Automatic annotation (TrEMBL), chains A, B:
<dbReference type="GO" id="GO:0008168">
    <property type="term" value="F:methyltransferase activity"/>
</dbReference>
<feature type="region of interest" description="Disordered">
    <location>
        <begin position="187"/>
        <end position="238"/>
    </location>
</feature>
<comment type="pathway">
    <text>tRNA modification; wybutosine-tRNA(Phe) biosynthesis.</text>
</comment>
<keyword id="KW-0489">Methyltransferase</keyword>
<keyword id="KW-0949">S-adenosyl-L-methionine</keyword>
<dbReference type="InterPro" id="IPR003827">
    <property type="entry name" value="tRNA_yW-synthesising"/>
</dbReference>
<feature type="domain" description="tRNA wybutosine-synthesizing protein">
    <location>
        <begin position="10"/>
        <end position="118"/>
    </location>
</feature>
<keyword id="KW-0819">tRNA processing</keyword>
<dbReference type="Pfam" id="PF02676">
    <property type="entry name" value="TYW3"/>
</dbReference>
<dbReference type="GO" id="GO:0032259">
    <property type="term" value="P:methylation"/>
</dbReference>
<dbReference type="GO" id="GO:0008033">
    <property type="term" value="P:tRNA processing"/>
</dbReference>
<comment type="similarity">
    <text>Belongs to the TYW3 family.</text>
</comment>
<protein>
    <recommendedName>
        <fullName>tRNA wybutosine-synthesizing protein 3 homolog</fullName>
        <ecNumber>2.1.1.282</ecNumber>
    </recommendedName>
</protein>
<keyword id="KW-0808">Transferase</keyword>
<comment type="function">
    <text>Probable S-adenosyl-L-methionine-dependent methyltransferase that acts as a component of the wybutosine biosynthesis pathway. Wybutosine is a hyper modified guanosine with a tricyclic base found at the 3'-position adjacent to the anticodon of eukaryotic phenylalanine tRNA.</text>
</comment>
<feature type="compositionally biased region" description="Basic and acidic residues">
    <location>
        <begin position="203"/>
        <end position="219"/>
    </location>
</feature>
<dbReference type="InterPro" id="IPR036602">
    <property type="entry name" value="tRNA_yW-synthesising-like_sf"/>
</dbReference>
């Protein structure tokens, strides 16, 4: 079986499908990153979120609210405004929670080695209960304070996406050069060594340390002879 | 090179080292899970946390507070009491945050295939800013409300650890039986198929869907010819 050809066919099939997300399109802040990955034959993305601030209402009665007993009062991929949150909170009749969720990217890789270049750190966010059975549990001053924090995280997240894009682009370029002069085993060693040393020299500026490969059953097709592996990228800790 | 022997040697070396965590021992609620994994030749754990409620103080001045500009005002692996939180909050002079962190387990695997049995879902927690420059931003009633939520998450997390233990034990037993009657490729297919079908039949009760393998540079030794791979287990979403 030619795995490369099969991966190519699978990629084409997935990318030709309609975007089934609520929004129906890729978030502006990750368009370049998604294009960079999809432009390389060894990768394709299956889902992405640039990062968002959401206000959820978790209902007491499952039939009253949408999607797993939970409805979205507010979603924004941009810094949010206090008044929007205050207005949205008035619609809460259950337990409303404000969340910040950073970048998430699901990437399918042709083979294990292709996942070596992807820099990953653990998730980080904000998750604050605000109402209980529709009753606001905090002051407006606190909401203001909270929104400032969420917006700061959003800004920081955006910077990290840019940094990640630059690191990835650099790693992909380096890999292309390496491919022409090193046998496969050597490339892996070289990449590992490069990241390890980078981290030791300047841990703050290292592109990342974790590499995650997932057999994500939700994103996989039903074919057990799966022609690739799945990578989930989480941004660095704050 | 005999990879199995090398992995065995590496495992023995890691497990013989002193526990360098703040606590210095494995959390009570994951002792059985850690023992189950370490008792199998294809795995060993490098770090674990059963789940905890922590109160952090993030200082404005880096020199005033410990460990990355952040000090721990309270840590508990058991449900926590309001008065303890109130007392601890009085010590805050920066931005205090209450967090719930669910089970985290780092597992080294001998080979890629060994990671197939590990059920993984994304992280989930609670992260609530409570003070700003030492000033309390919420009411005592809210703190009470929040502690109830954190304690509920702690309880739910404990149930999930038990469920994960049972699923893992079941999968390991099944694998041992399969190993004697199927060639390697077949085992992998069989496991995948079993998980996928289970999920479709009863998504609520499925053991898990995600399998994560990490090249965790912090946990790895410096040997580039690494005799294993690393798996990070996160509990299911709430």
């Amino acid at each position: 079986m030619d795995r490369s050809a099969e991966f190519r066919r699978w990629k084409a099939q997935c990318l030709s499908k309609a975007d089934l997300s609520r929004k129906g399109s890729v978030d502006e802040d990750v368009v370049e990153l998604v294009q960079l990955l999809n432009g390389r034959e060894q990768f394709f993305t299956t889902s992405s979120c640039a990062g968002r601030i959401i206000l959820l209402d978790r209902g007491i009665n499952g039939s009253e609210v949408q999607k797993q007993n939970c409805c979205w009062l507010l979603v924004t991929h941009k810094p949010c405004v206090k008044d929007d949150v205050i207005v949205a909170l008035k619609k809460a009749n259950g337990d409303a929670i404000l969340k910040f969720e950073p970048l998430v990217l699901h990437v399918q890789c042709r083979q294990l080695q292709d996942a070596q270049i992807l820099a990953v750190r653990s998730t980080h966010g904000l998750e604050v209960p605000l109402t209980h059975k529709g009753k606001l549990m905090v002051t407006e001053e606190y909401i203001n304070f909270l929104i400032k924090i969420a917006n700061q995280k959003m800004e920081e997240n955006k910077k990290r996406i840019e940094r990640f894009y630059n690191c990835l682009q650099h790693a992909l370029e380096k890999e292309t050069i390496s491919m022409t002069s090193y046998p496969k085993e050597k490339i892996k060693e070289k990449n590992n060594s490069s990241y390890t040393h980078k981290k030791k020299r300047n841990p703050e500026k290292a592109c990342g340390k974790y590499i995650t490969e997932e057999n994500n059953k939700e994103l996989e097709n039903d074919d057990h002879d799966d022609p690739g592996i799945s990578v989930t990228i989480f941004p660095e800790d704050y």
